Amino acid sequence: MESGMLSRTQQALIRESWRRVSGSPVQHGVVLFSRLFDLDPDLLPLFQYNCKQFGSPQECLAAPEFLDHIRKVMLVIDAAVSHLEDLPCLEEYLCNLGKKHQAVGVKVESFSTVGESLLYMLEKCLGAAFGPDVREAWIELYGAVVKAMQRGWEALPEGN
Fold first, then answer.
1. pLDDT tens digit string along 119-145?
2. Are the C-beta atoms of 10 and 88 separated by less than 8 Å?
3. Residue 54: what are its φ and ψ, rounded to 5°?
4. Exposure winner among 24, 49, 71, 158, fewest CB in 10 A?
5. What single DSSP character describes residue 44?
């Protein structure tokens, strides 16, 4: 992961916007995943717990196991925000997270939809405070996170 890819201004914009969102991680995470399922309903079957298939996004979003997943996703975002000055320290963790996502059938292409959903959630939660500069800073950060996760895919041989 490239260190120093975000300017100090971008880091400050990300920190301030995240501070306003991170107080209610599950609530805001539900907004993110609701949007994700709206954009790509085919992702719903990837989320199974105890071999239980969810019949609808609403059923999934209400399941305690899925709410735990939402908490974990929000913690990953929080870790990235907490390490803006030293994103390379998250490289191994994010690479392994990529491997885990590949193992459960997530396609690399789905991360662009997740990115759109993240931006949607931030815009809904921040309103007018989610201006073009804030949006661009988040796009840069998310791009760096996804790049590190993609290296997890590349580390596995084909067919695994």
1. 999 999 999 999 999 999 999 999 999
2. no
3. -80, 140
4. 158
5. G
Q: For residue 132, count CB atoms less than 10 angstroms from its CB and return exposed for 0-12, middle for 13-18, buried for 19 or more.
A: exposed
Q: At what angle do helices 132-154 and 110-126 cross, to 10 degrees?
A: 150
Distance CA 115, CA 52 (A): 27
Span 22-153 CATH architecture: Orthogonal Bundle (1.10)
Q: Give the chain's end-to-end CA distance (angstroms, integer).
A: 25
Whether the CB-CB separation of 152 and 97 falls below 8 Å is answered with: yes
Indicate whether 81 pLDDT > 70: yes
4 vs 109: CA distance, rounded Å: 26
At 84-133, the pLDDT tens digits run 989 889 999 999 999 999 988 898 889 999 999 999 999 999 999 999 99
Q: What are the extents of the domains in the chain?
A: 22-153
**Which pLDDT score, from 0 to 100, does residue 157 have?**
54
pTM of the model: 0.89
Give the separation between CA 9 and CA 139, rounded to whole angstroms.
Answer: 14
